[in-house]
């Protein structure tokens, strides 16, 4: 079966939204507000400096996606590319879709002069952690903290 990676288009928004909602439920048992999610995805397409989505297709059918966003590193004088919102449909898991998406991101990042790739993963998601380590990523020594601010999207 043929696996292709392509840049997502706005026409992919319904699948991207459905997959983001599914991923939030699978990983955090969190229900996302559909209107907020759609605005958030649309915001990437409206402002490309925020990042971009890639879609994996097998035999012409979309089977997964991810989002890349950018983080400037003053220590390294360059951008880290963050891999976010990773989702592969259950029937396509363990079939190389994420590996192909990751390889495409790594190639694009190297061509753009990025200094590295980063992602975060749920602490209990051992399968994903093994996948990332198998691709050569290393667990770093940082913990992630957040503080949500009040506003229309909170």
Automatic annotation (TrEMBL):
Keyword Hydrolase among UniProt keywords: no
Gene3D superfamilies: 3.40.630.30
Segments forming domain N-acetyltransferase: 3-152
SUPFAM superfamilies reported for this sequence: Acyl-CoA N-acyltransferases (Nat) (SSF55729)
Keyword line: Acyltransferase, Transferase
Family annotation (CDD domains): NAT_SF
Family matches, as InterPro entries: Acyl_CoA_acyltransferase (IPR016181), Bact_Acetyltransf (IPR050832), GNAT_dom (IPR000182)
Keyword presence, Acyltransferase: yes
Species this protein is from: Rhodanobacter soli
Protein name: Ribosomal protein S18 acetylase RimI-like enzyme
One Pfam entry name: Acetyltransf_1
PROSITE patterns: GNAT
